[in-house]
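Lab notebook, entry 1012. We have the chain sequence and a SMILES string for magnesium ion, and the next step in the workflow is to get a structural model of the bound complex before anyone spends time on docking refinements. Request logged below.

Task: model protein plus magnesium ion, output structure tokens.
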Amino acid sequence: MNIARAGLRLVYKKKLETIVLIILVVLVVFQHGFLELTRYNVGYHIYGQLRDEMGDLALIVPEAKAGEAASLLEDLGASRVEASTFYLVKLSIGNKTMLAPLIALDELGRFSAVAALKAGSPPQGPGEAGIYTVVASGARGMSLDWVEPGMEAVIQAYTPRGPLSMSVNITGVYKGFSWAAGYPYAIVLPSIPEALVGQGVVVVSAWLDTGDPEATAERLASLAKERGIPVYGLLVNTPERNPIIMLVKSAFNLLSIPASIMLAFAFILPAAAGTVSVFRDLRSLAVLRAMGASIAELSLYYTLPWLARGLIGSIIAAVLLALYSDDIYFKVFVGDSDIARAMAEAYGFKLDPATLLRASIIALAMVLAGGLVPLAAASRVRVVEALRSGELPLAWIPPRIPLPGPLQLRSSLRDLAARWWKLAGMVLALGLLWGVSAALEMETGSLDSIIGFLEDEYPVDVYAGFISLAPQPPEPVYSAIGEIVAGDPRVQGYTLYYSESTVTDLPRGHGRVFMTYITVLQGDPRVGFPLEEGRYPQQPGEAAISKYMAAYLGVSLGDRITLDSPVGGRVELEVVGLSVSMLNNGFYVIVAPDSGIFQAEPGLREAIVMIDLEDGVDPEGYARELKEAGLPPYITATQVFIREDLVDSLRTMTSMVRVFYSGIALLTALAAGIALGGILMVDASARAREHGVLLAMGSGRIHILLGYLIQALASLATAAPLALALGYVTALATARGTALALGYVPPTPSVGALASSLLWGSLLVSLAIALAAVVLHLRRLRLSEVLRE
Amino acid sequence: MTAALEFDNVWKTYKTGKIEEEVLRGVSFTVERGTFTAIVGPSGSGKSTIIFLAAGIDTPTKGTVRVLGEEISGKGESWRRKWRRRNIGIVFQFFHLVPTLTALENVILSMELAGTPGDRKARARELLEFVGLGGKEDKYPSELSGGEQQRVALARALAHNPPLVLADEPTANLDYENKVRVVKLLREAASEGRTVVFATHDPELVQGADRIIRVLDGRVVEE
Ligand SMILES: Nc1ncnc2c1ncn2[C@@H]1O[C@H](COP(=O)(O)OP(=O)(O)OP(=O)(O)O)[C@@H](O)[C@H]1O
Ligand SMILES: [Mg+2]
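Result returned:
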């Protein structure tokens, strides 16, 4: 018991070791906990906000059927039912034209609880309108961010009573979080024009106090079919099935997976520094053993102080998280976006206790595991030998190789070889540091390779989606578009296809994704979906999938996969081809037109075309023309973008990722620096007499420091294979974890990734910290004291 | 010619927490060049402290220490360190060999630091041979006995031909035969024009000294 107390006394007697471990634990627990808390809260905000606005279930039906749909939902046990009406119109502002939902001003607050007037004033009379845009819809040219009060807009609608056209002046710009009937923007009028009433779509939202939304949705779908209510869409809002939460959480893995590795640093310091101190104290340990102390007592002496320090660190980290994580969240992730602020304020920043506890417990477990290493070393103390030797004993007799160069460097390398625990600790710390930067490099390398593929190999220059404003168009949209592109001499090739998307469970427990089902209706499928292997589907039950998804799922040609179908139920498909396209991040399935899995008739009301232009044709000009010229009056382009838009948005994302990764690399460098510094400091105190003799003989501190630098460099060289393996495993885990948000591109284990600039930067930071710790120690070395004993 | 070592009213106080301990209280003495001088006194009297001050490893709280005409007590730490390389050879009471260098390498190390010209390896071998360690050149300190380590330390102190050799209990761990060798070696070092100052409890070693400085309670009581 006395030994345990003596062990605990070390916590305040060895202040530097205590401070170093506490800082380290605080650092790793805080950053892990913070990212996890943020992930939790973002998911919770999105779900809470979506539930408030959309309910647990939302049914999209024609305006005429809204009443029936509402009563159907009430019959199914909804505690509250609300409806928002949207009218799809063609909207032109400046030279841009798009399909947009139109809503009445008094609907705005209902469908988007956090909609705020950002500029201008609300539209008041006829001839005035507002624009609503969704926060963070900037990617892929879908944003209306550029619209300002004072601009003119033309609204065109196609009604059974004939076309309707009106010019309006935009007076105000609203921002909000909810998408409007599937669009990231809407046009807001004080009231709905007479001619449109009855022609809209209604989103009927229902809140369930009890019951499972998914089961209710299934009954709803079949009841609606029975009663002849046409369903344009059925949305189920559960945290697990929410595609936005899935995307956000997946995107978050980009940060949290590499960052989690830092938890392992909590292991290194107690393991290596603890073992160094065991060897430093070997003689007193041997004396204690000779006096009859048991190994259990000795282990208490060595493990308890580390555990106590780890506990203090975890508690401090938990307290800091509780106090500051919301502030940091606001600064880092909310920034000056008042919508994100409104969300965070409306739904709060919850300190999920499970998340807090998990980070602390993992760190403590790491510390404990690290504390067991010196215990193992202490239990193997050979009493007789330790008592015989005068100097700090060597754990292993290093080979007597007469390396060239000054003797002090030779002695440093031998010292490293003799003290395996120090070598192991430094190799682990440097390997982790290096592995993380290698992983980050491999990950950004994958992103770069996607950009490279889009720029250099993928044939598509222009993407354009079209929709019919008329429910029953005189000619299917796809053939009308086909006529336009097929005859154009500027078009080298095109793929005209139809798609529907749904959330599906992936086979073999690979999670859930938002899957796009594609069927090619006209043109050459090789333009948009070049084949890497196999062939395109020819009959129901066959599918060509992206090679990225195939790699993610581990399937190959001839395998069968089972997925949720857009019409409900599961569908089994045989993989007959592998294609290369990053459409929907590679989570797409190409099926035959008659596969029977689409809700609507493929290509009738909607179609998308991907175009490969002849060399020399300006894609931007072509895209502009495609949007405006020659379309039948009932068809409008939904979104048109060119290769550059896509590349730009990917570049923006890649550079954001780089910034965040630099942050992770810096934190890792700090943790590695603290761990290394801690190890070297304990080592320097164990070797104080050796250093004292060198100094007494006239050697400089700089030489001793150089010795440590040599040791660090030798450890670094030893750490290379570890770094490569760790980097690859981390990059792979990150690639898999972020597949939903970024697409799955497996990293290639490249030795080149080991030499990233990120590495040199972070290496410099950590070595500087580590060597500063040694300098600090050497400055405090009192020669006349260490040499007297 | 200047003296090899001069202590002029040297005081040394050690502070442990709030307690100040006066270890040396006005020590003055002079050691002429080429002499073989013993410092004697009971345990705890301050012998090692004097050796450390003479080597410039420690500085006096008050008073001056002059070595070979140079007042080292007033010099900065970095100056003293560089000065030490060439001018001082020291044998510590507890030897303090570098654990990861072999016996031979430990001896070469002092020549390397001092920049001694010539075949260092050959000289190191010769010295080790002379202190009776022929054949043990490639052993690490942990593979040598206490007495063997002490002789390596002595060889290390002499290897670079320093004008002042300081030795703290150089014969404490030796059997009779080895003691004779070590004394002979130290004596010869002194007669080559070098000065040897050693602290000891050993009456035999004291008898052979040219000069005896007796320390008691932090003061020199008799010369
Ligand atoms: N760093 C220190 N702090 C406080 N007191 C010290 C310190 N170093 C030495 N002393 C004290 O100084 C006194 C002289 O020590 P010193 O080592 O010079 O004695 P010594 O004559 O060499 O003894 P011994 O024959 O046992 O080696 C001792 O009483 C010792 O306790
Ligand atoms: Mg002494």
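Notes for the group: Residues B 47-48, 93, 168 surround magnesium ion (ligand 2) (CB under 6 Å). Worth checking against the assay data. The first helix of chain A runs from residue 2 to 13.
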